[in-house]
Specification:
alpha+beta; six-stranded mixed sheet; 4 helices; globular
Length: about 120
């Protein structure tokens, strides 16, 4: 069963910062603007990944509907495909969008098994 947008946000708030060794050479930020819900900022600083609610400036901004956001976070919708289909919009540094794309699950979560980026 797919998580709700609120569950995704709550899980992010519960683990606001983590380390991802794949990003040790990377620094930047990406904000998700979710229509009618709010904005969430992902900041990467040499492997440290932090996420929080924020309307602040970002290197990259991805705008989506709540449904598309959930489908992307669940791995049911590919970020690049969603952009090419006009389901999301993107502004800013394409390297950040590529970084976010690489962190997202590539297939839906399976019952009882968490998909990790």
């Amino acid at each position: 069963m797919a998580r709700t947008i609120q569950q995704i946000i709550d899980e992010t708030k519960a683990k606001p910062e983590r380390f991802d060794e794949r990003l040790v050479d990377f620094q930047g930020s990406c904000r998700f603007d979710i229509e009618g819900v709010g904005s969430y900022l992902i900041e990467v600083d040499h492997g440290r990944v932090a996420a929080r609610e924020s309307h602040g400036p970002a290197d990259c901004v991805i705008t989506s509907s709540p449904d598309d956001f959930v489908r992307i976070m669940e791995g049911e919708q590919n970020l690049l495909t969603a952009f090419m289909q006009g389901r999301i919009s993107f502004q800013g540094d394409p390297r950040m969008a590529k970084m976010v794309h690489g962190l997202l699950p590539t297939h839906p979560r399976e019952e009882g098994r968490e998909v990790r980026p």
